[in-house]
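Progress report, Aim 2. The chain analyzed during this reporting quarter is listed below.
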Amino acid sequence: LIKTLAQAYRHKRRYMNLFVVDGCPELIARQLLLLSLALERTTRCGLLEKTRRFLEIYGNLLLRPTTSRYLNGKARQLVEMITNPEYMSCLIPTVSIDQTKYRERDYMENLFNFWTTGNTNQFNACELWEHRLRHSLGVRYDNRAGVFDWDYHMRMKEVASQICFQEYKHFREHGIAYTWLETEVCRPNVSFAAGVYKCGDRYLHRGYLGDMVSSPYLAYGLDCEDKEMLKSTHGVNYKRATDISERNLLRMFYELENRQAFDV
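Predicted structure tokens for the chain:
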């Protein structure tokens, strides 16, 4: 969706209606969050910071404190958007929720409100990841390193060789896909919460909603227009899937905002 919007300027002027159909309101809410972030102008933060912020929210179980504060602020804005279509049309006029039912909007409003109050006490992301990991692996949990190794070399590497084993293993173990040396993640990514409902003054949830096997690299980290990013020697990649995802999104966000080719 983002790539289509970013590269629309390369073709003759035409009008497009893109429909997002999903039976899970949590995923629709995340789509709104990520689209809202992608369509923001790079006035308050640079292009690189915007890209890394997007990748964190998209694929990391834990966030940097700055990204967590941004998510809380964006959630408050989304509450206003979901309850006031005119406000949404002012901020992101290219997005419409007219086709959604009112009960779905009410649920997403509760979900966004939970995001504003989500913290380690209400949404213990690491504990939920551990619980799902134990449940999915069963008796193989104690030998999970071997399971991750087998999944990568027998399944993943054949179709996604650009993904490095170290980053894939780190994601399977901790739920953190995108890492950089100068960053530290410690706050839960509350946008992964599922089954949120209000109970008095509190919000309760049923668990974690997200991928645990395939990894988020498949969306942006397998191919790149800059072929230098795809080089490898003896099966060892020069660049991680994280670096390729970052380069691809840098290009998309730049083209989306400036309507011209991204010059490396």
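The beta strands are 62-63, 187-188, 193-194, 197-199, 202-204, 207-208, 232-233, 236-237. The radius of gyration is 19 Å. These observations will guide the mutagenesis work planned for the next reporting period.
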